[in-house]
């Protein structure tokens, strides 16, 4: 079994395929969560932060295409029995990153998953409901994709690496200097304020604590 820290959501109403994918991905080191309808998928995405979604188009309560807008910012591989070109083109233009027709080869699927995660920077850092995408400089917070500035991303990355510990202001300035050489002690306060505001909006709670006179930490 290879080691990975990636979460994958499986959305398919076919119980046999859903269970098979769940077993396959877990054996290959992925963390998984399953949904069998569009409604279940929406509920799942409220509490599970996937790095990739495997999506069937023909769900019992809504077309899979309707979910694409709900999972923007997360790579989607469509698995569908629909093999017509118009379905493929429409789905890819609608937001999916890949399309495979059923029946499919599991080794090929695993290879495509690896490529999609690699493309989307999924050697991701994760803390609670937050995962960082290095390529896009975004924080995936639950089901919300939060766009960060270069400085905000560097700060949050450092805080996640040191989760549970106070990171002194001077340490933050030193560690992020390669990415943000113009950041000063005065401007750091502004960057922290903006970062906290973005995360609080997505999480509905403040996750960054100020330790007076010392620095900052993740709660």
Tell me about this structure.
The chain is α/β, with parallel strands linked by helices. It folds into 2 domains: 7-119, Rossmann fold, CATH 3.40.50; 125-218, Winged helix-like DNA-binding domain superfamily/Winged helix DNA-binding domain (Arc Repressor Mutant, subunit A, Orthogonal Bundle), CATH 1.10.10. Helices cover 40% and strands 22% of the residues. It contains 8 helices and 12 strands. A hairpin with a 2-residue loop joins strand 8 (138-141) and strand 9 (144-147). Helix 6 packs across helix 8. The mean pLDDT is 85.
- Would you report the number of β strands? 12
* SSE topology string: EHEHEHEHEHEEEEHEHHEE
In whole angstroms, the N-to-C terminal distance is: 33 Å
User: How do the strands line up in the largest sheet?
Assistant: 2-1-3-4-5
Number of helices: 8
Instruction: Tell me the number of structural domains.
Output: 2
Q: On the 0-100 scale, what is the average pLDDT?
A: 85
* Percentage of residues in strands: 15-25%
Which fold does the CATH topology of the largest domain refer to?
A: Rossmann fold
Task: Let me know the largest β-sheet.
Answer: 5 strands, parallel
Low-confidence stretches: none
Summing up helix and strand content along with how strands pair, one would put the structural category as: alpha/beta
Q: What percent of the residues sit in helical stretches (DSSP H or I)?
A: 40-55%
Secondary structure layout plus pairing:
Elements: E1 7-11, H1 15-27, E2 31-35, H2 38-47, E3 52-55, H3 65-68, E4 76-80, H4 85-93, E5 98-101, H5 106-119, E6 125-127, E7 130-133, E8 138-141, E9 144-147, H6 150-161, E10 167-168, H7 169-175, H8 185-203, E11 208-211, E12 215-218
Parallel strand pairs: 1-2, 1-3, 3-4, 4-5
Antiparallel strand pairs: 6-7, 7-8, 8-9, 10-12, 11-12
Helix pairs in contact: 6-8
């Amino acid at each position: 079994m290879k080691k990975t820290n990636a979460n994958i959501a499986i959305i398919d109403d076919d119980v046999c395929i859903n269970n098979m994918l769940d077993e396959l991905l877990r054996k290959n080191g992925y963390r998984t969560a399953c949904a069998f309808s569009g409604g279940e998928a929406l509920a799942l995405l409220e509490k599970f932060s996937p790095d990739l979604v495997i999506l069937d188009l023909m769900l019992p309560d809504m077309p899979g295409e309707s979910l694409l807008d709900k999972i923007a910012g997360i790579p989607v591989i469509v698995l569908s029995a629909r093999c017509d070109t118009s379905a493929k083109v429409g789905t890819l233009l609608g937001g999916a990153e890949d399309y495979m027709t059923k029946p499919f080869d599991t080794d090929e699927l695993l290879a495509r998953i690896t490529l999609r995660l690699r493309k989307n920077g999924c050697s991701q850092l994760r803390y609670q409901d937050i995962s960082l995408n290095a390529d896009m400089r975004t924080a995936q917070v639950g089901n919300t994709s939060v766009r960060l500035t270069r400085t905000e991303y560097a700060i949050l990355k450092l805080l996640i690496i040191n989760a549970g510990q106070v990171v002194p202001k001077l340490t933050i300035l030193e560690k992020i200097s390669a990415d943000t050489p113009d950041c000063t002690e005065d401007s750091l306060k502004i960057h922290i304020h903006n970062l906290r505001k973005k995360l609080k909006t997505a999480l509905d709670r403040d996750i960054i604590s100020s330790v007076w006179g010392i620095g900052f930490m993740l709660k």
